[in-house]
Amino acid sequence: MAEATYDPDNIFAKILRGEFPSHRVYEDDAVVAFMDAMPQGPGHTLVVPKAPSRNLLDADPATLGPLFTVVQKVALAIKRAFGADGVTILQFNEPASGQTVYHLHVHVIPRFEGIPLKPHSGGREKPEVLAASAEKIRAALDD
Ligand code: 5GP
Asked: Which pTM value belongs to this model?
């Protein structure tokens, strides 16, 4: 079977190029973070390196340090913004793992005692809810 390759027209590549809308919470030279459109809980955010790779397996190791620096920054901001008890970090590689979008990304999800996660890639959240969550996270990042 042919090796799977990076598709520059995947939805996150379009979001990174500004060709498809998203609710952004953070951007620097190497990394963007925006709200997951089908959140597994309130505040579910995706942290995405600008450098193209399908996932962690084919990523340039040089992208991982800056990526996980932002994952930590966003996790701390989300915990503050939502008053969360904890934060789940998820990252999927290839279909067998549950990956559905083939541009490397890390899920950052606030967690609350006793409240389970909603299904992965479940229902779409209302844009106004995503916008309000993004605003809260941006404010916490500025604190
Ligand atoms: P994966 O399974 O690849 O780790 O996760 C892809 C994530 O992208 C899912 O959590 C899904 O809800 C989210 N997602 C899919 N399409 C879009 C989209 O168009 N915009 C945003 N912001 N998130 C999306």
From this structure: 0.97
